[in-house]
Specification:
single chain; alpha+beta; Surface presentation of antigens (SPOA); 2 domains; four-stranded antiparallel sheet; globular
Length: about 250
């Protein structure tokens, strides 16, 4: 059974090699003390797994341009690690069905004795090696009311008894789903003039949720995440079962 820590390790390895300069490698190691100036970030998780997940970085990592030239390295690391935290939550859901979310993500400058290292990693970039320490305080919740809640959820999502036999025969039919990030109307002339390097601005802000489409129907909305190196969708809103069934009209 995958844990959040295992999902975080996989997401960090994949994202670091893709997003950082030089494609550095992340490997597990024994904990080593960090020099003065160490800094970190903490994600607070809520859901089936809850708690605080902290990452402390070697201050020497700020002397590099791993997150890009001309970029505030500390802020850049914050963005990268926030994306890793969200990607790990998405992968945990995909692999185990356990739903958790990053409720808060914050930076801390002072390393105190309260942070107890549970795992250590080395980030190897060329001849340089940087230490990354992890404090994993995430725990699995097992509330006594969980079975009842699951039963209620199952009832809400189960097809109604009023569904016709013809609809029931379609329940195992596989359908193609797509993510819609936004749209824009363009004159035909502009479409024909498009070339490599051109940018088409969509009608949706980068922070807005994206749509999950079946046929021409929106069945859910959510946030884009990384799942094992691939794009995924963490669902935040979902249409009712009856509305979702409307999407089968695209079959006819």
């Amino acid at each position: 059974m995958k844990s959040y820590l295992e999902c975080w390790t996989g997401a960090a390895s994949a994202l670091f090699s893709q997003a950082l300069a030089g494609e550095p490698e992340l490997v597990e190691s024994l904990p080593t003390p960090l020099a003065a100036g160490a800094f970190g970030f903490a994600a607070t998780l809520f859901g089936d797994e809850e708690g605080r997940f902290s990452v402390v970085l070697d201050p020497a990592i700020l002397e590099t341009t791993l997150v890009g030239e001309g970029v505030d390295q500390k802020a850049g690391w914050g963005e990268i690690l926030k994306e890793v935290a969200n990607a790990a939550a998405g992968e945990l859901l995909a692999r185990t069905g356990k739903n958790c979310r990053v409720e808060k993500f914050e930076k801390f400058e002072e390393i105190t004795e309260e942070i107890k290292v549970s795992h250590a990693f080395q980030l190897k970039s060329g001849e340089r090696v940087f230490t990354i320490l992890v404090c994993n305080e995430v725990r699995v919740l097992q509330p006594a009311t969980q079975p009842a809640a699951q039963s209620a959820d199952a009832s809400a999502l189960a097809p109604s008894d009023s569904l016709s036999p013809g609809i029931r025969l379609l329940m195992d039919v596989e359908m193609e789903v797509a993510l819609r990030f936004g749209c824009k109307e363009l004159p035909l002339g502009e479409i024909l003039d498009l070339g490599p390097g051109d940018v088409v601005q969509l009608d949706r802000n980068v922070a807005d949720p994206v749509d999950l489409i079946v046929g021409d129907k929106i069945v859910a909305c959510g946030e884009v995440v990384l799942v094992n190196g691939n794009f995924g969708l963490r669902v935040t809103e979902v249409a009712s079962p009856r509305q979702r069934l409307e999407s089968i009209r695209c079959l006819f």
